[in-house]
Specification:
This protein has helices spanning 54-61, 111-124, 131-141, 147-165; strands at residues 4-5, 37-40, 43-46, 78-83, 86-91, 98-100, 103-105, 142-143, 180-190, 195-203, 213-223, 226-230, 241-244. It is of the alpha+beta class. The protein is globular.
């Protein structure tokens, strides 16, 4: 296996969806209920009534439904443990090998290590996870110019969600469960330079048959001997989110 993958040449056209005519049904990551609004961290993604059409999904997402890069095989030593209401993959070989203060670090400098870091940090930076989880993760495992905005946005969203749910400050917000990690797609990786771009794909039995999954584009950097997630634009995972009408080609399951 070479150390460099090239991303698909197709330009990325994903964008947050904001039109008042679209349905609004608040959902927290961990639920992904059928279709209108998904909250991830401080993200609000508005899904239009016609967003379930597969041909539209792939066009909006900028996802090339052919295999854009060579995909590794599923990880063979995976175990699954629940974090913030979502079952996450852990590997003795590729990480996370260090778990403390609600963070999970110590990933291998490999495609597999990057894929594990991407899903772990994505879920742990959900506002619903609560500040005992998301605060140390943001402090140690996220980087980039939009990190300050992300801290503020996730904190604000947490306060709103906990007030609605009636939970004490600092406690996680119950989500009802249901979100499942489906896998990941490698869009580009250069292990020599220490950069990676992956789509983490989540699904739920509550999603409609025509909107089968949601993908989050995750940019990564190798810093201080570990993978760090680059904070999304404006600190908002919604700027990277895409609904998919079908399982994308090139999807790799985490195994286990």
């Amino acid at each position: 296996m070479t150390n460099t993958y090239r991303p698909s040449p197709q330009p990325r056209t994903a964008r947050p969806l904001h039109k008042p005519a679209w349905r609004r049904l608040p959902v927290v990551l961990g639920t992904l209920a059928s279709g209108a609004v998904i909250l991830v961290g401080a993200t609000t993604i508005l899904l239009p009534d016609d967003a379930s059409r597969p041909e539209r999904d792939n066009a909006v997402a900028g996802i090339d439904t052919t295999t854009a890069v060579p995909a590794p095989s599923a990880i063979t030593d995976i175990t699954w443990n629940e974090v913030a209401g979502v079952s996450l993959p852990f590997s003795r070989t590729h990480g996370p090998r260090l778990t403390r203060d609600s963070t999970a670090g110590g990933y291998s400098r490999s495609t597999t290590g990057a894929a594990l870091a991407a899903v772990q940090v994505l879920v742990r930076t959900s506002a619903a996870a609560g500040p005992r989880i998301y605060a140390p993760v943001l402090a140690t495992q996220v980087t980039g110019a939009d990190l300050p905005a992300m801290r503020l946005a996730v904190n604000d969203e947490y306060q709103r969600l906990r007030a609605q749910a009636g939970v004490a400050d600092g406690e996680p917000v119950p989500t009802g469960g249901g979100a499942q990690v489906l896998g990941y797609v490698v869009r580009g990786i250069d292990l020599h330079e220490g950069t990676a771009t992956l789509d983490v794909v989540l699904t739920s039995p509550d999603l409609s048959p025509s909107a089968r999954s949601v993908a989050f584009r995750v940019e990564m950097r190798w810093q201080n001997d570990d993978w760090r997630i680059v904070a999304p634009a404006n600190g908002d995972w919604g700027t990277t989110a895409m609904t998919l009408g079908a399982v994308p080609d090139g999807l790799v399951g985490y195994g286990g």
